[in-house]
Amino acid sequence: xxxxxxxxxxxxxxxxxxxxxxxxxxxxxxxxxxxxxxxxxxxxxxxxxxxxxxxxxxxxxxxxxxxxxxxxxxxxxxxxxxxxxxxxxxxxxxxxxxxxxxxxxxxxxxxxxxxxxxxxxxxxxxxxxxxxxxxxxxxxxxxxxxxxxxxxxxxxxxxxxxxxxxxxxxxxxxxxxxxxxxxxxxxxxxxxxxxxxxxxxxxxxxxxxxxxxxxxxxxxxxxxxxxxxxxxxxxxxxxxxxxxxxxxxxxxxxxxxxxxxxxxxxxxxxxxxxxxxxxxxxxxxxxxxxxxxxxxxxxxxxxxxxxxxxxxxxxxxxxxxxxxxxxxxxxxxxxxxxxxxxxxxxxxxxxxxxxxxxxxxxxxxxxxxxxxxxxxxxxxxxxxxxxxxxxxxxxxxxxxxxxxxxxxxxxxxxxxxxx
Length: 419
Description:
Blueprint: H1 7-23, H2 26-33, H3 41-50, H4 69-82, H5 88-102, H6 105-116, E1 122-125, H7 131-134, E2 154-159, E3 162-173, E4 180-187, E5 194-201, E6 229-233, E7 243-255, H8 265-301, E8 303-304, E9 307-308, H9 313-341, H10 348-369, H11 381-395, H12 398-408
Parallel strand pairs: 1-4
Antiparallel strand pairs: 2-3, 3-7, 4-5, 5-7, 6-7, 8-9
Helix pairs in contact: 1-4, 4-8, 4-9, 5-6, 5-8, 8-9, 8-10, 8-11, 9-10, 10-11, 10-12
C-alpha cells in the first residue's frame, strides 16, 4: 500500500474544500436542509457538472471519471467536514454501484451517464429498517430481510407486462426526491423465496437540475410519486441526511439485469456495503476533524480565571486524546478505501465503527468544551453530534459492526483464524 496521495487526489481535496468553504457554511447548511429536496440544487449542479463528483468512481465508458473508491472517499471526507447535504451518498455510493454490478448493458448505458452528469439521482429502497443488514455490515444478508415470503417488506410478482411491486420501505436515503428507485423485493413465494432488485422510474419526479415551472413539483409537496408510489419525507434526527418512506401499491417495475439470468443480489449488496462503509468512514473522519478544529479554536479564545481555557492541562489532555482518536480513525478509513478499491473484502465495517465512535466522542466533547454556547441550537456543534448518532442508527451501531467483523474473521469461534 502506498500511503501517499497522488497530485490528482490532492487536487480533488483542495478544490472541493475551497468550494465548500465558500458555499456551504453553517447557515447555508441550515437553509439547504429546509428546502423541499433537502439540499441545494445549485451546489449539486456545481459538484456534478464542474467537478464530476457523482461519476467520480464510474468507468469513463459511462460518462464517469474512472477513479476508484479512494477518490470518492477523499471527496466524501471534505463533504463530511461541512456536513454538506447532497444526494451523493444515495446516488453515487449506494445506487449506482448496484446498477453497474447487476444492470444489463442497456440499463447501464441509459442510466449511468445521466447519473454521472448529475441529471438523475437515485435511491436504494430496502424494506423496513434493514439497510445495514442488507448491506452486510451488521449481519448475514442472505436471510429474510426483504420479506421472506411472509407479510411485510416489499413483494414482487410477475405479470404478462413485466413486474409489479407492493410493499413499503422506510429509511430510504433521499427517497423523496430521487428520480430513480432501486427497490429490493422478495419474490418466488415461501418455498422458493429470493430477493431481487427492481428499477422504478418515476415520470412525475423532475430532476433537480431541470427548472421547469410547468412540470409538476418533483419533490413531493403533495406526497406523491408515480402511479401507485407514495413518498413522504420523514423527520430524522440528522437533518443533513434526508430520509423518506416509500410505499408501493401495485407499481410497475423493471428487473435490474437481464430477465432469465440469475444474479447474486446478496453478494452485490455485500460488496457495495463494504465500499459504502469505507466512504462513510472517511466522511465521519472529515466531520470529526472539523469539529475538533473548531473546538481548538474556541478554547484558545475563551478565557476563564484570566487565561484561555485551552491553557489548562486538563483541557489539553482531553484535546490530545481526541486528536489521537481522530488520526487513528483517519488511518483506518484511508486503509479501508484503498483495500476496498484493491478488491479486499470485509474491511470497511471496522473502519466505519472506529470513525463513527471517533465522531461521536469528538462531537460530544465539543459540546462540553464549548460550554453554554455548545448547547444552543444556533451553534453547529449539535449538528455534528446528530450526524454521529444518525449514522449509527442507519449503519450501526458500532458494537454490532465490530461483532459482525469478528464473526466473519472467526475470532471467537474456536476455529482457525481467517487471514
